Amino acid sequence: MSSRKSTASSASADVPDEARGRPAPTAQHPADVEPGQHPVTLDDCRRCALWSRATQAVGGVGPKHAPIMMVGEQPGDKEDQQGAPFVGPAGQLLDDALKEAGVSRRDVYVTNAVKHFKWEPRGKRRMHKTPAQREIDACHYWLERELASVGPRVIVALGATALKAILEDRAAKLQAVVGKVLTHGGRHVVPTYHPSFALRAPDEATRERAYAAIVAALRDAGKLASR
Ligand code: URA
């Protein structure tokens, strides 16, 4: 596993807000927000270009010291509008899977590897576009701060983008590690499928297998967290 540090892609990120004619952000850390509350953004982030087409940055939500952190890819259309992670259909599937795995939402902090919605227009719709490695890198500082602040014992990587971000390894392959438990930075990492895959895979058998794998991963995470 690489120990590559995340890189800030734009010098403007280091320019204080006051110098750019904006008030400095006063937001509390997203980890201070309890579940059910509106998340607060950490920063008026400009480290990559995604902010310019997104409604807002979407920080993580959950208990301040949750033992489990679930990391997705990036906010979707609903999350972008509502300013909270996993509030759309993928979030509903995660809620169902958590229930089935016997893991309480109160033990879980939920966030994404990339905090702005990346999309392209298709007719009147905004279609999700997978973030590029440079965007994952640019956003990594935020995930690092969440990890440092929440201090989870277990991280659940939901999909390939999350896995790359958590392991800081652009070559990480989800398929090679699904169903295993990894260790990174002194924490357990449980890689599994992204909930959207369990919702949108073309055939039902694949969707069912993916959902079962997500439930199994959450069950593993719950056991590891309570050790
Ligand atoms: N997909 C994600 O990866 N994250 C969200 O917050 C919503 C959908």
TrEMBL record:
<keyword id="KW-0378">Hydrolase</keyword>
<dbReference type="InterPro" id="IPR005122">
    <property type="entry name" value="Uracil-DNA_glycosylase-like"/>
</dbReference>
<dbReference type="InterPro" id="IPR005273">
    <property type="entry name" value="Ura-DNA_glyco_family4"/>
</dbReference>
<keyword id="KW-0227">DNA damage</keyword>
<dbReference type="InterPro" id="IPR051536">
    <property type="entry name" value="UDG_Type-4/5"/>
</dbReference>
<keyword id="KW-0479">Metal-binding</keyword>
<keyword id="KW-0004">4Fe-4S</keyword>
<keyword id="KW-0408">Iron</keyword>
<feature type="compositionally biased region" description="Low complexity">
    <location>
        <begin position="1"/>
        <end position="13"/>
    </location>
</feature>
<dbReference type="Pfam" id="PF03167">
    <property type="entry name" value="UDG"/>
</dbReference>
<feature type="region of interest" description="Disordered">
    <location>
        <begin position="1"/>
        <end position="39"/>
    </location>
</feature>
<dbReference type="InterPro" id="IPR036895">
    <property type="entry name" value="Uracil-DNA_glycosylase-like_sf"/>
</dbReference>
<protein>
    <recommendedName>
        <fullName>Type-4 uracil-DNA glycosylase</fullName>
    </recommendedName>
</protein>
<keyword id="KW-0234">DNA repair</keyword>
<comment type="similarity">
    <text>Belongs to the uracil-DNA glycosylase (UDG) superfamily. Type 4 (UDGa) family.</text>
</comment>
<feature type="domain" description="Uracil-DNA glycosylase-like">
    <location>
        <begin position="59"/>
        <end position="219"/>
    </location>
</feature>
<keyword id="KW-0411">Iron-sulfur</keyword>
